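Hey,
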Amino acid sequence: MIQEIFHLNPILFTLLITIITVVVFIVGMLIARKYFSYLFFKPEDNQVANIMMRQLGTLLSVLLAFAVISTWQDYELQRRNTAEEASIMGNLYRDSRGMDIEKEKEIQYLLINYTKAVVEDGWPKMLECKESKIAWLAFNKLYGAIIRYLPANAREQIVEARMIQHLNDMAKFRRLRHLRNADPLIPNILWASIFCGTILFTISGYFLRCQNMKLQTIVTIISAILFGVIFSMLLLFNHPYSGSLQISPSPIENLLKDVYHIADITENLK
C-alpha cells in the first residue's frame, strides 16, 4: 500500500500528503481547544511564548532546509551518475573496434543486450527496490567475454586495458545505483527529529490564546500546507529510483536509439 502511494503522480502525491497534514493539524487544533483550553497561555505570557516559538521555528526551519538541500543535491548527483554510466557504456562500445572483427561483434552484441536489460528490466525492478537478475546475468556475460580475452598484439593489449577499466567503472556506477536505492539518504533519526520538531512547533501554536477561531484556523491551515509540501519533497527526493520522481533511464536508453548506431555509421564511413 505504501509503495503504491510512492508511485502516484508527484502532484497527486504532494496533494495527498498535504491534505493529510492539513487534516491532522486541524483535528489537533480542535482537540486542543475543546479539551485542553485550561493550558492556554495567559495574555501576559504571550510575549514570552512568542519568543519561544520563534526560536523553535528557527531551529525547525534550519533542520528542514538542511534536509531539503541535502536530498535535492543527492537527487542531482544520481542523475549525473546515470549520465556518467551511459557515457562509459558508449565508450566501451566504441573501444570494441580495437578488437578483431569477431570479438568486436561479440562484445557489441553483449553490450546491447546488457543495455536493453538495464532499461527494460533493471529500471522497473528498482521501482520495487529490487535488482534485476536479467541485467546481472547480461553484465556477467559481458564481463566474462572481455576479462577472459587474450590480446593478440600490443594494440589489443591497450584496448583490453581500457575496456577492463570501463567495465570496472560500469560496475561501480551500477552498484552505486542499487546501494542508493536500498538506502534512503535521510536516516530514521533525522526523520524523527523533523517530526518531533514539527509536532512541538504545531502544538505550541495551539496554546497561544487566540479568541478569533477563524484566524487561528487559517494560520493553522497555511502552516499545514507548507509542512505538507516540504514533507512531500523530502519523501520524493529521498527515493530517486523507487518513487514517482524516479530518475529517467533516458541517457542509457539513448545509447540504443542513437549512440550505438552513430558509432556503427562512423565505422562504416571509413
